[in-house]
From TrEMBL:
Annotated TM spans: 16-35, 70-91, 103-123, 129-150, 162-181, 193-214, 279-303, 315-337, 344-366, 372-399
Pfam families: Sugar_tr
Principal localisation: membrane
Source species: Oreochromis niloticus (Nile tilapia)
Protein name: Solute carrier family 2 member 11a
GO molecular function, one term: fructose transmembrane transporter activity
Alphabetical GO biological process terms: D-glucose import; dehydroascorbic acid transport; fructose import across plasma membrane
Protein family (similarity comment): Belongs to the major facilitator superfamily. Sugar transporter (TC 2.A.1.1) family.
Gene coding for it: slc2a11
Length: 501
């Protein structure tokens, strides 16, 4: 009996679908991280005055300058603690709701934060600003974990690095956008600072209106939910053509290797020898991304430029230049990462940062003795940020997607995000009292050495190949352990042949 053949359906989407999905997720995702870092520079003086006035009205107490600086530092740095909380809940949320729905639900924190910031001035409450910053941090912590995971699981293998790195591009774009909106001519003036703090609701609203129209992560649909048809449909829409059997076979292989495994908890990864070096790599590189000192420049950009000899009326324009540098560097890294590889970009970025941190410290030390040293200091700030954008800014977020399987990936992102946010908080608290970049230079140098010596290249490789390379580090002398444990039990192409017609 001859089975009746069904006609092949035409593609429901186009390659443009993947690009638009990336833009929609990023506008309400990692763009918020960069935007909310940058908008705190412009209203520094105005909010410090507001804090002092509030204390005076409530308790008839005039705060000392160092006390105002301390309260302001807490307001700025508490964003990091919110991010830490967001990183911890991101994993369970992605498992429960999926990648796309998690990003949409994340906007609850954002909208609440925007409302608190908007009404804080009328309520005469700087505490509302603190709560707002915590909620914005939670929003950023979730998006910084979930968005790279969503992109890495949705992109084809040959574009996986570039698509995942677009998270860093939008983070840098968020920095530039926040700096531009924070100009005195726009929302950076004294009467408008509450509107500046609440303006982050606009990108979130754009995401709420656009992201529901795009598909969920194909890997999540097949591996976590077991929905073959939905996975095929998602792949077809994202690729703009019928599904390639080789790509589906790779997802099937990962499904076979994780069959019967539940999603890992973060603490379980610390005792799992099969992911020991993956975990060490992610923890070191995620920590180095913050301990390198780059985000400290954005937290306290005006302080840095004052030390470099830039006049007060020009600082806001010099600050916009820093964001533009990172944005440009991230675009260049996006274009190069699939050619040069992850390890080259990471090690090269950290090495350049080491050099410029040392030069910057020397320039600051002699700026009061040699007139042109102030210009060298300013140049070092820009080159330091350029070096950061060319490697660590983008590649760091790709690694957990590429070196962990589906069961361990959410927990790995929780650990990586926790390390990033905790170290960002530490740096944010100590930077106002740290007057040289030598510690940052040491961290960059050690990070470059680690990447060069221990991190395998992942460019263009399947998860199975990457896991096999890490196996050589995790199980030295036990070469048969990995093959026996991960031998795939599936038939190539079975889903493609049965559902693509």
């Amino acid at each position: 009996m001859i089975a009746k053949l069904q006609p092949i359906r035409p593609p429901q989407g186009s390659p443009l679908t993947l690009v638009l999905m990336v833009a929609s997720a990023s506008i309400g995702g990692t763009l918020q991280y960069g935007y909310n870092l940058a908008i705190m520079n412009a209203p520094t003086t105005f909010i410090q005055t507001f804090i002092n006035e509030t204390f005076l009205e409530r308790w008839d107490v005039q705060l000392e300058e160092y006390q105002v600086t301390l309260v302001w530092t807490i307001i700025v740095s508490i964003f990091s603690l919110g991010g830490f909380a967001g990183a911890l809940i991101a994993g369970p949320m992605t498992i429960r709701f999926g990648r796309k729905k998690c990003l949409l639900l994340n906007n609850i924190f954002l909208m609440t934060a925007a409302l608190l910031a908007l009404t804080s001035r009328t309520a005469r409450s700087f505490e509302m600003i603190m709560i707002s910053r915590v909620l914005v941090g939670i929003n950023a912590g979730i998006s910084m974990n979930v968005q790279p995971m969503y992109f890495g699981e949705s992109a084809p293998k040959h574009l996986r690095g570039a698509v995942s790195l677009s998270s860093a591009v939008f983070t840098a774009f968020g920095v530039v956008l926040g700096q531009v909106v924070g100009l005195r001519e726009i929302l950076g003036s004294e009467p408008c600072w509450q509107y500046l703090l609440a303006s982050n609701a606009i990108p979130g609203l754009i995401q709420l209106l656009t992201l529901p129209w795009f598909p969920e992560s194909p890997r999540y649909l097949l591996i976590d939910r077991g929905d073959k048809e939905a996975c095929i449909n998602a792949l077809r829409r994202l690729r703009g053509c019928e599904v390639q059997s080789s790509e589906l076979d790779e997802i099937l292989q990962e499904q076979a290797e994780t069959k019967g495994m539940r999603a890992s908890h973060p603490w379980e990864l610390f005792t799992d020898r099969s992911v020991r070096w993956q975990l060490i790599s992610v923890m070191i590189i995620s920590s180095a991304m913050q301990l390198c000192g780059n985000d400290s420049i954005y937290f306290y950009a005006s302080y840095v430029f004052k030390e470099a000899g830039i006049s007060d009326d020009k600082i806001q324009y010099a600050t916009v230049g820093t964001g533009t540098c990172e944005f440009t560097a991230c675009i260049m890294c996006n274009l190069l990462v699939e050619r040069k590889g992850r390890r080259f970009m990471l090690a090269g970025g950290f090495t350049l940062m080491t050099f410029w941190a040392v030069v910057f410290t020397i320039a600051l030390s002699f700026e009061h003795h040699i007139t042109w040293m102030s210009y060298l200091s300013m140049a070092c700030v820009y080159t330091y940020i350029l070096s950061f954008g060319m490697g660590p800014a983008g590649v760091t977020g790709i690694l957990p997607t590429e070196i962990f399987n589906q069961a361990a990936r959410p927990a790995a992102y929780m650990i990586a995000g926790s390390m990033m946010w905790l170290n960002l908080f530490v740096v944010g608290m100590i930077f106002p009292f740290l007057y040289c970049f030598v510690p940052f230079a040491a961290i960059c140098l050690l990070s470059a050495l680690y990447v060069g010596l221990f991190l395998p290249e992942t460019k263009g490789k399947s998860l199975s190949v990457i896991m096999h390379e890490f196996h050589r580090l995790n199980f030295k002398g036990q070469e048969n352990h990995f093959e026996a444990q991960t031998k795939p039990q599936y038939q190539l192409g079975e889903v493609c042949l049965s559902t693509a017609l």
